[in-house]
Amino acid sequence: MRGQRRVFVTGATGLVGEEVLRHMLRDDPALEAFALVRTEPGWKSLAARLGPLAGRVVPIHGDMTRSGMGLDQSARESIQRETRVVVHAAADTSFSRALDHSRFVNTLGTYNVAEMAAEFRQLERFVFVSTAFVAGRSTGTILERDNGCKAGWVNAYEQSKYEAESTVRASALPWTVVRPSTIVCRGAEGDIPQINAVHRALRIYHRGLAAMIPGDRSNPVDVVTSSYVSGAIARIALDPRAVHKTVHLCSGGNALTLGELIDTAYEVWAESPEWLKRGVERAMITDAETYALFERAVLETGDVRLRSVLSSLSHFIPQLALPKVFDTAVADVLLDVPAPPASSYWKPMLRSLIASNWGQTAERAAA
User: Fold this and answer.
1) Both ends of the chain: CA-CA distance in Å?
2) Backbone φ and ψ of 237, nearest 5°
3) What is the pLDDT of residues 11-55, one digit of tens each?
4) Number of helices (H) and strands (E), helices first, in the chain?
5) Do 230 and 249 form a contact (C-beta atoms < 8 A)?
6) Mean pLDDT for the chain?
7) CA-CA distance, 229 to 126, in Å (whole number)?
8) Does the pTM exceed 0.85?
9) Phi, psi (5° rounding) for residue 252?
10) Which of 333, 331, 145 is nearest to 244 (CA)?
């Protein structure tokens, strides 16, 4: 890249955005950054976590769901004049939102960021952080490209991110689309920076609140670490070979199977004498049709608690019965290093979940 480097990061207060920003600042002592933040408290919290690195970050107060991101003229001119790389990581990652809401944040927000980036005078790269699960209900090998949308999606998040990708691809920007699969922990130690749908589903089965899991023991389940994803994005953002490429940041062919992940979970849970005393029955892995019958039976019983449990699972767990392998050929060329095997961090992650009581210990400490 030529001359002074300035990167503009959206979602810098979120898990991926913050870690990407941290990686880029550490990797290049000359790098300076703009960070889009919605509130002053949000910026102060981010600055505290970044420590000395925050001295090279200029907070930009705005909202990507507004036209022009709600920026004042001075901020807009500075960003347009100085930004060479955009990393758009901001998103609402909840799987349970209504489609209109997910589109408002993820699709419209991406359109607004891309529209402004088109005005950047020195722009060399626009990196859009999507999700591997834009593949939705598709099965088989998922290639690093626009694979269409005929199969449909499991939830509104997947659909809104696919539509956001389409917005980026249709632009004249020097774009790169990166697609992480499901982040379950930070690294090999199993530290969990953010509780998500996978962790919540594990909690339900740990408590014995659901008797079945849809899928087949041989189905691959793709999970990754945030350190791998953020480090990869930081490198790809500055790699000229990545222009107009779609990159899967996934375990790919090295993903563990559903059977392996579930067996390991029950193995770790059985390390606790207290859990064993409760006599929690092991959930049965079954085909999608049988699971659907199970769901229907629960709905017909009128049991409010069980209905609530299945409702919370419905936005995520159908993916387990839709076997897919994410091709990583482009990622392999650009990064040279594959994602760390899930076998190296799945057990530590499970133990961290238990130790933190599924994130509640950290929440109480922060209160």
Assistant:
1) 43
2) -60, -25
3) 999 999 999 999 999 999 999 999 999 999 999 999 999 999 999
4) 15, 15
5) no
6) 94
7) 17
8) yes
9) 60, -130
10) 145
| Rounded CA separation 173/189 (Å) | 38
Q: Which of 15, 264, 20 is nearest to 125 (CA)?
A: 20
- Tokens 């859990």 locate to 275
Q: What pLDDT band is residue 311 in, cutting at 50, 70 and 90? A: confident
Compute CA 223 distance to the chain's CA centroid, rounded to the nearest angstrom: 10
pLDDT at 364: 44
The stretches of the chain forming alpha helices (DSSP H) are: 15-27, 40-50, 73-82, 99-102, 108-117, 156-169, 197-206, 226-236, 258-269, 273-277, 288-301, 304-313, 329-335, 346-355, 360-366
C-alpha span between 214 and 289 (Å, rounded): 8
User: Residues for the chain: how many in total?
Assistant: 367
Contact residues for 330 (Cβ-Cβ < 8 A; gap 6+) = 144, 245, 246, 247, 248
**pLDDT, tens digit, for every residue of 241-280?**
999 999 999 999 999 999 999 999 999 999 999 999 999 9
Task: Give residue 309's pLDDT.
Answer: 84
**Residue 196, phi-psi category: left (phi > 0), alpha (psi -120 to 50), beta (remainder):** beta
Q: Are strands 6-10 and 32-37 parallel, antiparallel or unpaired?
A: parallel
Joined tokens for residue 146: 């626009």
Q: Are the C-beta atoms of residues 255 and 341 closer than 8 Å to each other? A: no
Q: What's the rounded Cα separation, in Å, for the pair 344 and 27?
A: 25
Do 323 and 220 touch, CB atoms closer than 8 A?
A: yes
- What is the chain's alpha carbon radius of gyration, rounded to the nearest angstrom? 21
- For residue 308, is pLDDT > 80? yes
Grade residue 1 by pLDDT with cuts at 50, 70 and 90. very low
Query: What pLDDT does 302 receive?
Result: 66
